[in-house]
Every structure is written in structure tokens, then in C-alpha cells.
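Translate structure to sequence.
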């Protein structure tokens, strides 16, 4: 990491003014910050060091990389250090027009773009003598526009997943500055494809190591799903046998399908043995043909399942398949960023949730899945975004109360206690005036117990936070909810109610 040039700018007013005009790297604008509160999805710190006259901001990240964010919601890494970023903005004052260029475009196209942009700048500002002066003062060599565009392209490619910028209030991600990177599935499948190649080459160590490692096994099976070869039947049988160690997984079903597609009735005993591994596999593979089935029946079963659940195009797989496999490989930020962009797409266009067979109905399960995924990643702000929208879209009183109960828990765990109190008010209102009969039995079932428990847990959290007036008020509401429950539903809550009452009493 090098910030030598930045320090020189801060020490020399003449150089700072040259950087600001005409190269639009203005240190004075750092005092104004960015146009809105922002943060990195990774949680790493950011420091504003400069701005430009379009409302854009230059940030320095924890590792020294420079992130540029414009005022239109687009951001990207433009250098691995402030020195590298300054060399870029001085050497290519029109660099914002080149973010879609790459060395593959060739020298002629790059030079033509640079010449056109710089000629337009020269109509208003001098840049040639100023560039030479700044380069000399800051110790920058004279690099060709083609080399600088290559550096910009490489820097922008590093933006995701570690440097994705979020609006701090709403949690939505800035668009990517520059071209899109490779699809998620390509990155996730890379290790599985490498292992599949080793297995096909007959590497016996790989056969043992892949089969015994649940993550490598799953990835290899996914690689085999999209790269099918006639000679894979033995390695597929091998992986199928070992995947039973994980009980019922999508990859176990996939392995059974890939084996079944060969139509070898000699595989029926193996498939039936796998089916009977445990209760979950018996349910998940219940459709496996019974002993005595013909080759055509076996192929038909496998083909129908393949067409309905798998297929041969990785782009057709649900994004959750790839984010799950990314997390399993330790690619946490890659999974997080993909899920954030998935949630952003839904927030911006809720029609994505419409059921094809019932256009007036919204299938909100993807939002609940996103909330759970974010919670597992430890990203409570994003989990709250997803759960809040999920709760708002529920149609029955039962679903609204249940979704808001979960929202209360997430708000409490995130330390957003006033919001959690308000959400509990909404839960009580939903149960008092439901608008339909879906909640008629809530007092006698687990939902009632869960709602009462959350009242007391939030009471304890308020007391621990020193909010005793709020804790007392909520304790009164909690006792009222508990009083409405049936004896069976209330049994598991009374001990927690006692703790909450004692804690509030201690505060008094």
C-alpha cells in the first residue's frame, strides 16, 4: 500500500489545486463526505479522501484500495493504492468513459476513445502541461493510455465481492462500475470441475478424497450435472454411495438421477439401498422404481426428475444452489453480495415474486429464504430488510403475525429495541383484529407461546439496556398475552415470565 502521492498533495497546495483542476481529484471535497451515508457490505472501514465535481467520492479501504462511488449509485475499485488511483486519474482524466474498455479491445480502439475524450476536455481546460507537472512532482512515470486502461480494468474486476458499497440506511447495493464479472456458478463450480477431471483420469487418491469430503463431493456431482459423459457411470455410483453420509441432500437426489439415466437395471439394488438409508432418504427418493422395473421405467423416472429439478444449464439453477455451495467453500462475501443483489432486485420489482400460474398471487417464500440465508451469514441488517418486506406482503392474519414475530426477534437480536417494540404492537393488533379466521386458535398453539415468549425476551433486553419504563410497559402487555393462552401453551412460558418480572423488579 502506497500513499506517497496523496501525502504530497496534502502538503503542497499548488499540487492539490492541480489535482482538483483539471483532474477532478479534489481533496477539499473530502470534508463534505459522500452524498449519502454508505458502508461496505463486508463491514470493513472506509475513509473519504477526495471528491469530484459530479458528486462522486474517492474512498480508501482498509487494505489501501481506492473505491470510487458516483452520485448515481455506481461504485468500483480504481486502484490498489492512492498512488495507483492518482496515477490513473492524472494519466486518464476521462477515465470514467473507459470503464467498459479492456485490453481485449485493442490499442487502436482504446487510443481512439482516449483521444476523443481528451480533445473534448482540452476545449475547456489545459491538461498536457498540467499532467507533466503533476507526474514529475509526484514521481509518476509516463505510461501509455493502453497500459492505464489495462490497470483500470484489472482494478474494477476486484470490486466484487469484497468492496461492494451499500446505502447505509436502506442496505441496497451500488451498481457495479465496469463490466459484469463471471457468473456466480462459474466461480463456484471451478473446484468441482477440477475434481471431476481428476476422477475421470482415474486418480485413485482423488476418488477417495473427493468421496470422503462432503463439500468436494457435492461440487463434483454438480460439475457432472452440467458436463455429462458416457464414461462417468462408475464414478457416479461411487459418489452416490458416499453421499448417503449426508442423508437427504439435493446432490443425493442428483446422483441417483444421473445413475438412473443410464437405464441399467443392475443399479436398482443400489438405488433402493440408498433410498432406505434413513427416513429422510426414504421420503426424498420415494419414487425410485421398485425391484423388477424395466430399463425404460428406470430411465423415465430419472428423466422426469432431471427435467423438473436439474437439467444441463447451470444458469437455470436457483441462485440459492450457488450461494449455498459458495458458503460451503468459504466464499462468504461472494454469497452475501449475490444475495444482496437478489434482494435488491425483488425490492425494486416485486412482480418477480408473481406466480406464473396465478399472476395475482405473490410467492413470498424467496424472501423468507433470503432472510434465513442472511441470518446464517450473521448479516442481521440484510435479514431484517428481507423479513420486513416478507411480513408486509403476507395476506392472512396468521402469516402476518408469524412473520412479524420473526421480525421482532431479528430486531431484538440486532439491538433495534424501539423497532422491536413497535413490531410487537403490530403482532398484538393482528391477533386482536385479524380480519379473517386464520388466527382463531392462536391462543392454544405454538404461535401463541412464541408470541408470549418474545414479549418477555424483549422485556429482558429492554431492562438490560436500562430502558426500564419501556420494560415495565411491555411486561404488562406480556402478562396480558400470557393470560390469554391455554394452559398447555402457557406452561413453557411461565418460567421466562418469572425471570422477566424479577429483572424488571431489580431495576425498580
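Result:
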Amino acid at each position: 500500500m502506497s500513499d506517497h502521492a496523496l501525502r504530497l498533495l496534502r502538503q503542497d497546495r499548488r499540487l492539490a489545486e492541480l489535482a482538483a483542476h483539471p483532474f477532478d481529484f479534489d481533496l477539499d471535497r473530502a470534508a463534505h463526505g459522500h452524498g449519502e451515508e454508505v458502508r461496505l457490505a463486508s463491514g470493513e472501514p472506509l475513509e473519504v479522501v477526495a471528491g469530484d465535481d459530479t458528486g462522486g467520492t474517492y474512498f480508501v479501504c482498509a487494505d489501501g484500495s481506492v473505491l470510487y462511488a458516483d452520485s448515481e449509485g455506481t461504485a468500483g475499485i480504481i486502484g490498489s493504492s492512492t498512488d495507483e488511483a492518482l496515477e490513473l486519474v492524472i494519466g486518464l482524466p476521462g477515465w470514467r468513459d473507459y470503464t467498459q474498455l479492456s485490453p481485449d479491445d485493442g490499442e487502436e480502439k482504446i487510443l481512439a476513445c482516449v483521444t476523443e475524450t481528451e480533445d473534448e476536455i482540452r476545449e475547456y481546460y489545459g491538461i498536457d502541461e498540467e499532467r507533466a507537472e503533476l507526474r514529475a512532482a509526484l514521481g509518476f512515470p509516463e505510461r501509455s493510455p493502453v497500459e492505464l486502461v489495462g490497470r483500470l480494468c484489472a482494478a474494477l474486476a476486484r470490486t466484487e465481492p469484497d468492496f461492494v458499497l451499500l446505502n447505509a440506511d436502506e442496505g441496497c447495493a451500488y451498481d457495479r462500475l465496469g463490466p459484469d464479472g463471471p457468473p456466480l456458478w462459474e466461480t463456484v463450480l471451478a473446484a468441482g470441475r477440477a475434481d471431476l477431471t481428476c476422477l475421470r483420469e482415474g486418480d485413485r487418491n482423488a476418488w477417495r478424497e473427493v468421496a470422503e469430503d462432503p463439500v468436494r463431493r457435492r461440487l463434483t456431482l454438480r460439475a457432472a450435472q452440467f458436463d455429462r459423459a458416457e464414461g462417468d457411470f462408475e464414478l457416479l455410483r461411487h459418489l452416490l454411495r458416499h453421499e448417503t453420509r449426508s442423508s437427504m441432500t439435493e446432490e443425493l437426489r442428483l446422483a441417483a438421477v444421473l445413475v438412473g439415466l443410464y437405464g441399467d437395471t443392475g443399479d436398482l439394488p443400489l438405488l433402493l439401498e440408498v433410498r432406505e438409508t434413513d427416513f429422510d432418504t426414504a421420503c426424498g427418493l420415494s419414487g425410485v422404481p421398485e425391484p423388477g422395473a424395466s430399463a425404460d421405467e428406470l430411465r423415465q423416472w430419472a428423466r422426469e426428475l432431471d427435467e423438473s429439478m436439474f437439467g444441463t444449464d447451470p444458469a437455470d439453477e436457483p441462485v440459492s444452489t450457488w450461494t449455498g455451495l459458495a458458503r460451503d467453500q468459504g466464499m462468504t462475501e461472494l454469497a452475501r453480495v449475490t444475495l444482496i443483489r437478489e434482494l435488491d432486485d425483488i425490492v425494486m420489482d416485486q412482480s418477480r415474486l408473481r406466480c406464473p400460474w396465478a399472476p395475482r398471487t405473490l410467492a413470498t417464500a424467496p424472501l423468507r429464504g433470503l432472510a434465513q440465508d442472511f441470518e446464517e451469514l450473521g448479516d442481521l441488517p440484510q435479514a431484517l430488510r428481507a423479513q420486513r418486506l416478507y411480513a408486509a406482503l403476507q395476506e392472512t392474519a396468521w402469516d402476518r403475525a408469524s412473520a412479524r414475530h420473526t421480525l421482532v426477534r431479528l430486531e431484538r437480536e440486532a439491538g433495534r429495541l424501539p423497532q422491536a417494540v413497535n413490531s410487537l404492537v403490530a403482532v398484538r393488533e393482528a391477533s386482536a383484529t385479524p380480519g379473517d379466521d386464520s388466527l382463531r386458535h392462536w391462543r392454544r398453539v405454538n404461535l401463541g407461546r412464541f408470541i408470549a415468549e418474545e414479549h418477555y425476551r424483549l422485556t429482558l433486553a429492554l431492562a438490560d439496556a436500562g430502558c426500564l419504563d419501556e420494560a415495565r410497559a411491555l411486561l404488562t402487555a406480556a402478562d396480558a398475552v400470557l393470560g390469554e393462552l391455554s394452559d398447555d401453551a402457557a406452561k413453557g412460558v411461565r418460567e421466562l415470565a418469572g425471570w422477566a418480572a424479577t429483572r424488571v423488579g431489580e431495576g425498580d
